[in-house]
Sequence to fold (117 residues):
Amino acid sequence: MKVIWLISISFILFGCQKKVYDAKTCEELSIRAFKGWPKDANEFKKNCQGIEITFTKEKCQEVLNDFILNGNLEALASKHGEKASECLTTSDLEKFKKSSVKTDHNDHGSGQSDSNN
Fold:
């Protein structure tokens, strides 16, 4: 009986703690909202109005546009800050990241031509 009472009291005390919505928390929610997470978007909308953050929806859109154009994460970080890549989804990274190694698409590695002579 004491165990049940202790568990109940623990849930009451720790389960009812209100989440603090500071700039860091709201920025994380904003980034997740931009990525399309509906629960986080709703939480951001309800609790973060009036809290100043860097990575707003508009800022993340700017980051995504820059990444689509140049595909360079280092350039993105230097222009927008270290957290800029957090605005990008895995899909964005796979689609638009440019390889730093230049390859010759005409070279098939054999040193021979493709003709079947």
